[in-house]
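Table S2 (continued). Query chain:
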Amino acid sequence: MKVLIFSHTYYPNKDGIAIHIYNLTKSLQKKEIDVEVVYPKNPIRIPGLSTPLPDIQSVVKLITGKYDIIHVHGYGNLFSIIGAFIGMLRGKPVVWTVHGIPDRHKLFKIYNAIAIHLLRRAKVISVSRKIEMIHKNYVLIYNGIDLDRFKCNRSYKESKYVTYIGRLDRDKGVDRLIDEYAGDIMVVGSDEDGFIHELKARSRGNVVFREVDYEQIVEIYCNSRYVVLPSRYEGFPMVMVESIACERPFIATPVGEIPTFLEYLFGNEYKKYLIDDDIGKIIDRLDRLDLSAELRRAREKLEILSWDSIAEQTIKVYRDALGR
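Corresponding output:
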């Protein structure tokens, strides 16, 4: 089985989709699936768009490459639409993984009007149930985690930073974290469309901005007292499971699959991790508690998210798409 993954991002980029594809690809290859990832080496960026335009080399590979299945990732980028459209024109089965549904601005409505027809002809995987707002027939497969790698040897209380990890774009709500928390903040991620300059201007001298390789990301988690994700939309964020694997409290807006999965991890206590108030006030409340035991128990529940298991579930979708 030859699979071509056509994506707007891939490792060494550090966003969630890039890391998801990187880990999934490694696990698929261990199971003797022939996988090739096509992504823009020299991305074409347009001001105001958070994802690049497809480059000529990527499109040529899509049109001329030999593969059994095309697998596209993300919803709201042109790579997914173009990949699905050309794959279907070539008579190839298309698998489409939706990682989140963007806010419904005008451009999204245009995108959705086109993409919804392609989704109906694809085998759809989603990392969260939020896809049901646009599409009902899908397979739910969460993001995975490498528990052997993501672990810390000291308590979260020994670290000082309240940390954001992810892309620096307006949908992630980093500006809200900077506005609402006056303590030590670490912002880790790559700039998108110059947004970092606005974030630095909002800082009161309490924010450290860093961009690190994925190999160093565990160190970032271990140096964090809390990890905060104030996103306006999400699917099933990688940073959520990575934080819990490192036994770091994860504080987030109640979007996508976040409330459901935190309830699975923490039971009735999950709501204290959801942003329903000023972020600074939430952190003050959590600082009065010792969360170590419940974080340890939550980590044990992440065993279901091994990348080996995620790969097996994905292969089942591939076989279904091929009619095997």
